[in-house]
Amino acid sequence: MRSVTMGVLVGLFFATLVVVASQKEYELKLKFEKDSKAYYKCSGKNMRKTVGGDEDGQQDSIIEHEVKDVSQDGTATLDMKILKLVFKSSKGEYDSEKGKKTLPKERVEMFDALLEKQLKAKVTPDGEVKETEGEKEIAEAIIKGMGDNQMLKMMPKETVQKMVEDSIKTSFGLLFFAFLPKKKVAIGDTWTFEQKQPMVNLIWEAKLKSVKKSGGKELAAIEFVLKDVVLETTDNNPMVAALEVEKNYKGGGKAEFNITDGKTVSVEMNHQYAIKNKITNGPAMETNDSVKAELLKEPPKIGKQDK
């Protein structure tokens, strides 16, 4: 009887150790160093069907993050700019390195402008983008390049400008660090974050799937699931009142974060959703997007960009 009791106690002891170990909390914080640079290779595909026509495209780019300054609380002032851009669609191609530009003139001018401009941002250690500068000029270039988009034409200019600016700020942050939790998390913990797009907000749930050690570094594996798609309502956009998001939306993804170095190693996200017109009960827009970003181990070699 005594041996049985001891066996039970020993079993409970080890079970407790397992529980304690599994509840270890991790701090997923960004670590910035002044004057340092990081380079990300990004790629994406998009398909968009609207009442004004269909759009598709495949994009590859290299984006540079330069840390201009770091405050005492760890908040960094970042300069983010596109060093290389390749875009292919059914309408033509744009390659900044080869100088190939067969897209319509408005799109070529848009991509030329994107390569010339940069976004400045203040980013906290937990990935919050607090202040930005430069999104207005970038948004203006994008809107001009999307001048043939019938849906945007039906919306007030100031509404379109704000939506695109919000989308730019979110996209730059989301892809690299805005998905991080605001507090310590244990394996299995979940949290939510928001992705703003023109006309809609995507609500994502993130989950810390696992943490492993490799080369002396702690690497966190994070999974994403799209939980909701919400229309962006504004007083200046009555058009939205006639729209409704279909409930068959879906999306997911994953990320790897280097806890030791405080850097995002890679991110993958995809989503698709549809919006219908409640008055006609017909489709207004369908979207299917995917994007990837990977931290480069060495600075990229960029060829001369011909204008």
What can you tell me about this protein's structure?
This protein has a single domain, classed as Lipovitellin-phosvitin complex, beta-sheet shell regions (Roll). Helices cover 22% and strands 47% of the residues. It has helices spanning 2-22, 105-116, 135-145, 150-153, 157-176; strands spanning 25-26, 37-50, 53-70, 76-89, 92-95, 100-101, 118-123, 129-133, 185-186, 190-197, 200-214, 217-231, 243-245, 250-258, 263-277, 283-295. The strands form two sheets. Strands 2, 3, 4, 5, 6, 7, 8, 10, 11, 12, 13, 14, 15 and 16 form a 14-stranded antiparallel sheet that branches. Strands 1-9 form a two-stranded antiparallel sheet. A hairpin with a 4-residue loop joins strand 14 and strand 15. The longest helix is centred in the first third of the chain and has 21 residues, at 2-22.
Task: Give the gist of this structure.
The chain is α+β, with helices and mostly antiparallel strands and 307 residues long. The protein has helices at residues 2-22, 105-116, 135-145, 150-153, 157-176; strands at 25-26, 37-50, 53-70, 76-89, 92-95, 100-101, 118-123, 129-133, 185-186, 190-197, 200-214, 217-231, 243-245, 250-258, 263-277, 283-295.
Secondary-structure map with pairings?
Elements: H1 2-22, E1 25-26, E2 37-50, E3 53-70, E4 76-89, E5 92-95, E6 100-101, H2 105-116, E7 118-123, E8 129-133, H3 135-145, H4 150-153, H5 157-176, E9 185-186, E10 190-197, E11 200-214, E12 217-231, E13 243-245, E14 250-258, E15 263-277, E16 283-295
Antiparallel strand pairs: 1-9, 2-3, 2-16, 3-4, 4-5, 4-7, 5-6, 7-8, 10-11, 11-12, 12-14, 13-15, 14-15, 15-16
